[in-house]
Amino acid sequence: MELWFSEKHTPNVKFSIQVDRQLYCGQSEFQRIDIFDSKEFGRFLTLDGYMMLTEKDEFIYHEMMVHIPMAVHPTAKKVLIIGGGDGGAIRELVRYPLVEHIDLVEIDELVVEVCKKHLPQTACCFNDERVTVHYQDGLKFIRRCENEYDLIIVDSTDPFGPGEGLFTKEFYGNCYKALKEDGIMVNQHESAFYLDDAVAMQRAHKRIVESFPISRVYQAHIPTYPSGHWLFGFASKKYHPIEDLKAVKWNAMGFKTRYYNTQLHVGAFALPNYVEELLKDVE
Amino acid sequence: MELWFSEKHTPNVKFSIQVDRQLYCGQSEFQRIDIFDSKEFGRFLTLDGYMMLTEKDEFIYHEMMVHIPMAVHPTAKKVLIIGGGDGGAIRELVRYPLVEHIDLVEIDELVVEVCKKHLPQTACCFNDERVTVHYQDGLKFIRRCENEYDLIIVDSTDPFGPGEGLFTKEFYGNCYKALKEDGIMVNQHESAFYLDDAVAMQRAHKRIVESFPISRVYQAHIPTYPSGHWLFGFASKKYHPIEDLKAVKWNAMGFKTRYYNTQLHVGAFALPNYVEELLKDVE
Questions:
Q1: What are the residue ranges spanned by the domains of chain A?
Q2: Between A10, A15, A219, which is nearest B40 by CB?
Q3: Which among A37, A191, B105, B240 has most CB atoms closer than 10 A?
Q4: Is B156 annotated as a binding residue?
């Protein structure tokens, strides 16, 4: 028997993974949730049929979402994660002894439950005493926060469906307000290669540039995401992502990472010309 | 009607492109050659069913194969391309007025003919008076060369089939001998993500390290190649790929590029830890 999971990256491009078996299938108030097991990627999570993470390459996404801002602001104490119900961002964050409190705001409780059961590789640290999980809409949660967080990680799904509001100007403005005067926001930013993704990326970048004085985009190679060339936003009130990189300090912490290192940190902000041009078009 | 081209990146991973129509199908002495037209990627070339290039993303591969070494050695005059029958490397090279002579050694004459007819975007510069095409086995051609070239570009297919010999220690040793004392060799190096590709990449790297005093690996995002994370080798007798980068000089030439720039040049050599570890294992 052959069982294949396929995702259309565009109407004309399809990425398929051979599946050993489906471990879970459920429908929450917000979305359809599936977990599959596969030879090539280990277990993987899809929401409404879209790839969220695989055990084989999720380290790239989560390391790049967490260690990039933490190496710029290694004394961050209070962190807000919007989305991130798989627990991957939490896993990387709790490695920092100076982090005192992590609020995770996930709209879909069932995602967290399913990940705890089926994806122990990422959902391993929800029990850390510094973590508080709020099952709420991130858009509403952030409205009441002011001058509270050192770091906000917007670990959203795509800019349609339940995650749509997390790509709006109102949301980014509220993130700005919720951050302390030296706070940083990072967000997943889609890709610049396929047209529809590039348009979404430009829209998000435009709104972030309007909200934050410092706004730069960085990249990573994530094989299971459309085009494999994934972008992230780094937005900040004060710190520059490269000039303020605390490389010596970060390296002294002695973390073992599989993707991130402080040289790659600098390299990740050196974007191809075609991406730079898309960004400049909306700056 | 739906017509899909699929390539298995591993036995368990498949990448598929919807095709408008097949423009060419032929069999040479060496391999099967196909050209397809598609909405998403424009025209694309496959050899024995493996993706070689698409009109949409070939600029990434060719710019990274040519401008990386040329920005380190901008006075290179005599260049050898092994493989590269699609003409993409030639197109980027002939932009340099100081380049005086380009030998292209392609084993399969039919590839050049088919590309000239169906891929004018890459096969546009075979008529440049500095270009000489040799329809020979690169492995044999290189044996008789000594102290002749400033730059050798190994634009090979995969390390099986007709391109197999271009990944051997004998071949890299002959490239060393064929280069002048400040010569550079670049080669396509597969990927580090899927196991079989990673093993091929390690094997090639080990052989290059044994032949050249300076040997570094750099990366690019190429969406239609397995994992999208593609590696290249930079091997040299004298020049370091970053310390000897002539950024001011290269930028003064005023080339318009879509992927390459001199900041990205430096960033491309900052590899993820898991790739660095694979390389160190064989150094």
A1: 4-54, 58-280
A2: A10
A3: A191
A4: yes
How far CA B47 is from CA of A28, A148, A218, B35, B111, in Å, comes to 46, 57, 34, 9, 9
Q: Determine the Cα–Cα distance for residues B218 and B227; give it in Å rounded to an integer.
A: 15
Pick the CATH number of A58-280 from 3.40.50.150, 3.20.20.210, 1.20.1080.10, 3.30.1330.30: 3.40.50.150
- B196 in catalytic set: no
Instruction: Kindly name the residue from A128, A155, A197, A281 that is annotated as catalytic.
Output: A155
Across the interface, do B273 and A258 touch by the CB < 8 Å criterion? Answer: yes
ipTM: 0.96
Residues B258, A273: C-beta atoms closer than 8 Å: yes
Fold of A4-54: Spermidine Synthase; Chain: A, domain 2 (2.30.140)
Per-residue pLDDT of chain A (283 residues; tens, 9 = 90+): 999 999 999 999 999 999 999 999 999 999 999 999 999 999 999 999 999 999 999 999 999 999 999 999 999 999 999 999 999 999 999 999 999 999 999 999 999 999 999 999 999 999 999 999 999 999 999 999 999 999 999 998 877 777 787 788 899 999 999 999 999 999 998 899 999 999 999 999 999 999 999 999 999 999 999 999 999 999 999 999 999 999 999 999 999 999 999 999 999 999 999 999 999 999 9
Task: State the CB neighbour count (10 A cutoff) for residue A74.
Answer: 17
Mean pLDDT for B85-110 is 98
Q: What percent of chain A has pLDDT over 90?
A: 94
Phi-psi region of B227 (alpha: psi -120 to 50; beta: other; left: phi over 0): left
Q: Sort strands B13-18 and A21-27 into parallel, antiparallel or unpaired.
A: unpaired
User: Is B34 annotated as belonging to a binding site?
Assistant: no
